[in-house]
Amino acid sequence: MGFLTDWIMDWLKGLLVDGIMGNLGGLFDNVNNQVGEIAATVGMTPGAFNPGVFALIRTLSETVVLPIAGLLLTFVMTWELIQLIIDQNNLHQIDTWIFFKWVFKTMIAVLLLTNTFNIVMGIFDVSQHVVNNAAGVISGSTAITSGMMATLEAELMAMDVGPLLGLWLQSFLIQIIVLALNIVVFIIVYGRMIEIYILTSLAPLPMATLTNREMSGMGHNYLKSLLAVGFQGLLIMVCVAIYAVLVQSIAISGDPIGAIWGAIGYTVLLCYTLFKTGSVSKSIFGAH
Hints:
The protein is mainly alpha-helical. It has one domain (about 1-65, about 115-285). The protein is built from 10 helices and no strands. It is rod-shaped.
């Protein structure tokens, strides 16, 4: 009878260990996949992310917004000329060089406006190059190896059936939390790309104000916003990389139950930090 009881207990233990390893293995695979997928997604330029949407945004920017920006530029440069003339001792003394200065500034303004889309794409090309270089470093250092899983399995086999049953329920809960994490990551990553498209569509308007002393704040803040959104991808990669390294401790911890709850804490922390990447990036570049 004792032999039968031991056999049943060993069978239950093996069943629970397999279930826990399956749940945690899925978690670890999800972490590895997330690092790779996020690296690929945030490393895309706006044109590569969705060519159809990119073509639509470019058409709107060049055919709808650009003519309005041209009118705005006309007003800005006319106001600039009036200010240059008035500033010279109330029209009592006018130097001819101010007209050459105004013509030169106007040429620069027209050049910037007509090349707005190339300037915006150049900013994103630089930021995406940085993100892609970082992805190669991060993906290679966050992978969870089979040796870590073997260590975890050995620790689980040394536990009794009761704790294993509780651990299996907790590992099942983690699977649900990871699904929620996937939704959060999707919202953050794809929301960032939509924000990029929105900023790109209106690019000619703030660019039309760059050469004016009084109104250039709009253009400067716009360029800061572009840099902030572009380099937000790097911050997203850093957050996911930190999360992946922390999750690695689950497989090599001497306390599997504590490690499971630690993983839940890490996951909630990742969701919070992902939502903060936008504001942190804007604060770094001084965008508002």
